[in-house]
Amino acid sequence: MPAQRKNVHLVCGGKYHDIDYARLQLLGLLAELEHVRTSVAPDYGDLAALARADLLVTYTSDVIPDEQQLAALQDFMRKGGRWFALHGTNARLEYRKGNGWVAPPEPRAFFDMLGSQFVAHPPIQPFTVAPSRSHPLVDGIEPFEADDEIYLCRFTAEVDCLLETRFSGDAPGFEQADWRRNDRVPVMYLHRWEGHELLYLNLGHARGHYDMQPMIDYYPDTERGSWKQAAFHELLRRGLRWSLGEFDAQKGEQHGG
């Protein structure tokens, strides 16, 4: 019997990131699943596509749903849809002179669904990511070095941490810059919202030369973060299959850093 068709809605958009690169990478991974058909949008505005979807995948930065879109997201989850959230999905930022980058806590219902809100990150630097516990999504994934953003978050609920790193220090440029009493930092987690499951993986930074406009006309570096790591691609493949309800732990490839 052929596999049943599944619909995926990919929301990929936002500020200060190479959205074109991330979109291309994610569409390539989704194209490996021959029974999947994908719709694409830069924000949460395509409510019809969301209503048709079995899975919502988001890679955004500073893209926040309005009231109607938030209600549609809640309906999607309540009807059994799965959500695989990536990188800056939980990020809402405002730059305020004298304070730096500030993370306004609204809309609270949106961050409650995600289980966390991005608050700050230290300068991009290599750090070790390792499984927190045994789970099919991370079993066989050896600790690997990510040259990425460490997401320092405000957690809105208890989450089931699957991958973690360690950090204690400062995040200059952000209103909440002092994280010296911090230690364990979730990198990948499962979160249950009203009994429905969401998977969040906050790795995946990407930036090109023109992605900081209008703040900076030409950004000198091309940053590809964890996209360079085989382990990250394996986590994405597992996350997609898991969220589609099709993950077979025995068939999962195993990659280190």
Number of domains: 1
> What is the N-to-C succession of helices and strands?
EHEHEHEEEHEEEEEEEEEH
Largest sheet: 9 strands, mixed
Provide the low-confidence segments as ranges: 250-257
* Count of alpha/pi helices: 5
CATH superfamily membership, which one? Class I glutamine amidotransferase (GATase) domain
N/C terminus separation: 37 Å
The whole-number mean of residue pLDDT values reads 95
Residue fraction in strands = 25-35%
How do the strands of the widest beta sheet line up side by side? 2-1-3-4-15-14-11-8-9
Overall 3D shape: globular
CATH topology, by name, is: Rossmann fold
CATH class type: Alpha Beta
Notes on the structure:
This protein is α/β, with parallel strands linked by helices and 257 residues long. The protein has a single domain, classed as Class I glutamine amidotransferase (GATase) domain (Rossmann fold). The chain has five helices and 15 strands. It has helices spanning 19-31, 47-52, 67-78, 108-114, 230-243, and strands at residues 6-14, 36-41, 55-61, 82-86, 94-96, 100-102, 116-120, 125-131, 144-148, 152-155, 160-166, 169-170, 178-179, 184-193, 196-201. Strands 2-1-3-4-15-14-11-8-9 form a nine-stranded mixed sheet. Strands 5-6 form a two-stranded antiparallel sheet. Strands 7-10 form a two-stranded antiparallel ribbon. The radius of gyration is 17 Å and the shape is globular. Residues 250-257 have low confidence and may be disordered.
